[in-house]
Request: fold
Amino acid sequence: MPKNTVLKELAKCKHPQSRKTLALARKIKKINNREKIKLGHAAKANVLGMKLAWFAEKVEGREEPLTPAEYEELIDLYLQRFDGELEQIKIVQAIGKHRANQHAAREAVIKTTLGMEKQHFAGGGLELPDLCDAEHFKKFQEWNGDAASVQHLKLKFISRKSLQSAEKVTKAETDQQMVE
Reply:
């Protein structure tokens, strides 16, 4: 909302097409757009914060960083997080065949979200902290869960291909150490 002083000034203006009225209207529009942009950034940070909070909950209590194989399993589990809700929607739809599709909007949002996340994980990667690196893992565990402090975490694009290649590298290193 624009500041009250600007609104009071606008109320005092008599003629709707005066220069002062138009200038105040532009000022109000500018303030509204600025606030809308702030809300957009807050929403993005909140979505990312919720995603990271899910991962933080799953790795809580771990001492050492994840192996690439464990991280891949954790991401697969993350991609299945809505399976229970989709199952409930299917049950409700099966019971009431005469009604219109009750939860169509929620089901569409879930399927779209999961489709995009699966596509990102198979392709360029999901933006997540590198939980295979000890330093990043420690910082992630120290994170307080606040969406505003997400910017202090080092995020990386993690894909299935990168995790599988990292797993091959770690296996080769352990085999090398076993030989020595």
Summary: The chain has a mean pLDDT of 85.
